[in-house]
Design a protein that fits this description.
- It contains 18 helices and 17 strands.
- About 5% of the residues have low confidence.
- With about 500 residues, the protein is of the alpha/beta class.
- The protein is globular and about 75 Å long.
- The longest helix has 16 residues.
- The relative contact order is 0.10.
Length: about 500
């Protein structure tokens, strides 16, 4: 570990500065957590001169003076670079001062003036994704999770998703209080819940000490044309932020849809539920018109009957049609060796083969506990591999070394970063990392390759090393590209079908 490490820097949008300084902001409480964690762990919260100019344009003089004074509490980027023509062309339409400020902020991130951007502006998040900067752009809540994961990591046993009848749940659970606000009156939610209980509706729940951490009430509908899976209620409690429980519920839903032969899953969402809309959009849900009989509530639908892979982006194809994936000849396939402790944290539910008897005395798994990242679909892996071949959409075959010696899991690459800068790596992988900051520093000291990926499937039958060797493979010590034929053999053995 390097003693004089560079401090992590988070660039704040104007809406976050307001949240930090204005008690009337709806995200002030979460922003206070961000400020506390930043101060505790010497993380720099900074602003851009464009944001200060944004405050200066306020036509209300008293508010303008107050805002400028608040912004003055935060250091500004020294001599921020102006976006060049190539970046502006990529950034999309710039029609007003707000768009110009957004572009200045994102260019500062691209040029590494700060490690990450924190903003509550949904449009700015969408622009960041178009520019390939989505991994370094955070909502306030996500920034809190980032600093918690890096500097105050929590380990715990993998949560259990229970499938229970609604009538077994109690309406006085605190999680239901937050759901009542989405209805026109408190009694409306209670009446709906009781009615669905009498109809025999079921739900997936995750709970701790009999208190709900997350819930997904569901219903399998069978219209004339296809089977549809409705996610009636989808909610994670505020106390369970950062545990990736929403992704865990989606993993359960997608697996159920796959086994049930559903053509699609859908959810009905009010337009003000920006965070949920963005979250579901990350997993292939797209807007599909208004809910029948409503003038505001909209349907977001994910389909599961994919067309043949197109010649375009393999990553976009997977996001739209997951768990389907493109394994065509233009898609790279890679063997990724993972030590047991990191494999357990990344893939706590992965099936295993009986371990090599010669390794039993090592007892390599007895001390491992699971990271909350294992709950999710989107994850990160760090390696000191020298490979430069990985591209978005490529396929990863994760191999558990040292004990079970088997290929267990298939994943799709989202993005990569090679760096010796621990803070830059931390900001890049922070939404989904199983590594704390000290572990990231150790990797960065030797030039780290950070890989963002999406878990696709655990092989129902993990491929043992002996079988892998029969097809020309080896227990490679580093990330290694494999042939299309070797990949096909793994899928055939594991009974994993790309379509």
């Amino acid at each position: 570990m390097r003693e004089n490490r560079r401090r992590m820097r988070l660039l704040l949008d104007t809406n976050v500065v307001i949240a930090l300084e204005d008690v009337s902001s709806p995200v002030t409480a979460i922003a206070a957590d961000l400020a506390r964690l930043a101060q505790k762990h010497s993380v720099v919260l900074m602003i851009h001169e464009a944001s200060r100019d944004d405050f200066e344009r306020d036509s209300v003089e008293e508010r303008r003076f107050a805002s400028v004074a608040k912004a003055g509490k935060y250091p500004a980027i020294d001599q921020p670079p102006a976006p060049d023509e190539a970046f502006l062309a990529r950034a999309g339409k710039i029609s007003d001062d707000n768009d110009r400020v957004d572009t200045d902020l994102l260019y500062a991130i691209e040029r590494d003036c700060a490690d990450a951007l924190v903003t509550e502006d949904r449009r700015l998040h969408k622009r960041a994704n178009r520019l390939g900067l989505g991994a370094r752009t955070y909502y306030v809540e996500q920034a809190v999770d980032l600093l918690t994961a890096l500097f105050e990591p929590r380990s715990m046993l993998p949560p259990t998703v229970e499938d229970v009848p609604l009538h077994s749940l109690h309406l006085d659970d605190p999680l239901f209080d937050t759901l009542r606000g989405a209805y026109t009156g408190e009694s409306d939610f209670d009446a709906w819940f009781k009615r669905k209980s009498r109809e025999g509706r079921w739900a997936w729940v995750i709970r701790t000490n009999d208190k709900l951490d997350a819930i997904c009430i569901y219903n399998l509908e069978e219209p004339e044309t296809s089977r549809s899976f409705k996610l009636c209620t989808f909610k994670v409690s505020e106390n369970s932020r950062g545990r990736h429980l929403g992704e865990l519920l989606l993993k359960t839903a997608f697996a159920t849809c796959d086994k049930s032969g559903c053509s699609n899953a859908f959810v009905e969402i009010f337009p003000e539920q920006d965070f949920l809309i963005d979250f579901l959009g990350e997993f292939g849900f797209v807007e599909d018109g208004l809910k029948p009989g409503s003038t505001t509530e909209r349907v977001y639908r994910k389909r599961f009957r994919p067309p043949p892979p197109p010649s375009g982006s393999a990553l976009e194809y997977h996001i739209a049609w997951a768990p389907a994936f493109d394994s065509g000849p233009d898609v790279g396939k890679f063997f990724v060796p993972v030590q047991p402790q990191f494999h357990s944290n990344l893939f706590p539910e992965a099936p295993t083969v009986p371990p090599d008897p010669s390794q039993l005395a090592l007892d390599v798994t007895s001390a491992y506990t699971s990271s909350v990242v294992g709950n999710g679909i989107r994850k990160a892996y760090l390696s000191n591999s020298p490979t430069t071949k990985l591209r978005a959409g490529d396929l990863l075959l994760f191999y558990r070394s040292h004990d079970t010696h088997a290929i267990t899991t298939l994943a799709v690459v989202e993005d990569t970063l090679r760096s010796t800068d621990a803070s830059a790596i931390g900001a890049f992988v922070g939404k989904r990392t199983v590594y704390d900051f000290k572990e990231i520093e150790a990797k960065a000291a030797k030039s780290a390759l950070a890989i963002l990926f999406r878990q696709v499937i655990h092989l129902p039958k993990p491929l043992p090393l002996t079988e892998w060797q029969r097809h020309g493979g080896s227990a490679y010590q580093s990330i290694t590209e494999v042939s299309d034929d070797q990949f096909a053999r793994v899928m055939e053995w594991g009974n994993a079908d790309p379509s």
